[in-house]
Amino acid sequence: MKHLLSFLFPPFCLYCHQPLNPSFSTLCEECFQELKPIDSTNRCYRCFQEISNKKHRCPKHLSSLTATSCCIEENPILHAVHSIQTMAALMIYQWYHLRWPMPDLIIPTPSDWFDRGNHTKNLAKAFASHASLPFSAALSISRGRTQIPYLSLDQQPNTTKCVHIRKPNDIVNKRILLIHDHLQTGFAIGLSARALREGGALTIHALCASIK
């Protein structure tokens, strides 16, 4: 049946629309090669911004993180890929090459942050499944103005949501790998990491799918 469906409805690359080789399920080999993981050599280990001079300083809201990395830079091909499994596989590839310590738990940033639905949660589940690691949706969001002590009133993030630990016992003395879909301001992973740190997490590494 599978061969018959392939004959009647031949698979095409999601981006360039060229016929697919049976070995590739969503993108052709040429387009897949464009989704190369980012080289983290000249990037800050905590905020993942490129370091152009010695005066670089990380944003203070990321101070609870042990390290941060992103998988790939945003590009048109990335927008054509809607497969959670494909993105999770690319993130695992990047995570493997980072040589970070083996995490005890995979945790997504709260799934409705910035109204992104369950995308981040599903991404973290797929990552945990492929890597054979435990998963927990340990963080939740509640209403209430988030206040960052070292920021002035006009610098506060434009959100009325606070991150809380839903399952405190899952966190204590654990090495956490925090999964997020897109790194922009860093407030989502920063506030999530602060909650985890206050909850007793041992280390908190953050891995994001993409960055601008």
Overall tally of structural domains? 2
Chain-averaged pLDDT: 79
**Helix- and strand-based class?**
alpha/beta
Distance between the termini: 42 Å
- The name of the CATH topology of the largest domain is Rossmann fold
CATH architecture of the largest domain: 3-Layer(aba) Sandwich
From N to C, what is the helix and strand string? HHEHHEHEEEHE
Radius of gyration: 19 Å
Give an overview of the whole structure.
This protein is of the alpha/beta class and 212 residues long. The protein has two domains: 1-33, no CATH class; 37-52 and 59-148 and 159-211, 3-Layer(aba) Sandwich (Rossmann fold). Helix content is 27%, strand content 18%. The chain is built from six helices and six strands. The protein has helices spanning 2-8, 29-33, 76-80, 84-98, 119-131, 187-198; strands spanning 67-73, 105-108, 139-143, 161-165, 175-183, 203-211. The strands form two sheets. It has a four-stranded parallel beta sheet with strand order 1-6-5-2, sandwiched between helices. It has a two-stranded antiparallel ribbon with strand order 3-4. It is globular and about 50 Å long.
Task: Describe the structure concisely.
The longest helix has 15 residues, at 84-98.
Notable features of this structure?
212 residues; alpha/beta; Rossmann fold; 2 domains; 4-stranded parallel sheet
SSE blueprint and pairings:
Elements: H1 2-8, H2 29-33, E1 67-73, H3 76-80, H4 84-98, E2 105-108, H5 119-131, E3 139-143, E4 161-165, E5 175-183, H6 187-198, E6 203-211
Parallel strand pairs: 1-6, 2-5, 5-6
Antiparallel strand pairs: 3-4
